[in-house]
Amino acid sequence: ILNVEQSPQSLHVQEGDSTNFTCSFPSSNFYALHWYRWETAKSPEALFVMTLNGDEKKKGRISATLNTKEGYSYLYIKGSQPEDSATYLCAMNTDKLIFGTGTRLQVFP
Amino acid sequence: DVKVTQSSRYLVKRTGEKVFLECVQDMDHENMFWYRQDPGLGLRLIYFSYDVKMKEKGDIPEGYSVSREKKERFSLILESASTNQTSMYLCASSLGTSGEQYFGPGTRLTVT
Predict the structure, then answer these.
(1) Which of B98, B102, B107, B108 would best serve as a mutation to test chain A binding (most A beta carbons within 10 A)?
(2) If A99 and its partner were Cys, which of A92, A94, B43, B73 is the partner (CB 3.0–4.6 Å)?
(3) Buried b (16+ CB within 10 A) or exposed e, B74-93
(4) Of A51, A93, A96, the CB nearest to B48
(5) A5 with A63: CB under 8 angstroms?
């Protein structure tokens, strides 16, 4: 059974702090790695879809890197804001998406 | 903007009832998915479909069935609801096999 792991499970930071979380996945059968942001009472929204080893993507203050050989991806948030509070999910794409359990981020003003 | 809608945000059903959860997407996506989300377990795939009238079992299909008669609509059916099916159910659609998925708002189902 393929397993995607995320750490930490939860994170509390002050506004303005930078933070990062990890997604680990089995490097065999890899096709793509997805990151989603899931805010309370809303639908999960895609942040990034990454396919190539060494890929680095950025959207505003959020960026992500991918290492397919060692099986991990990092998500970075620079200068966290309260509106960044959400659960961040990663998912490995084989023939379907296999999700991790998420990192719940809370940013305090 | 892609829009995925689900028929209900909250639903309360009794054990043994037949339950239909409807999902509609408006962007002509081939692929549609049903997940359930439980605390500490993440999103788990129940069923998916790559085309009309086509369905594939996901990781936890037991106790569920699906129907896809039209491209835009994917229904999840609980033939006889049980309390262990109390959960948040999310529908999603995507254009390609590896494309980003667009999620509906979710249906929180309680089976009493």
Answers:
(1) B98
(2) B43
(3) bbbebeebeeebbbebbbbb
(4) A96
(5) no
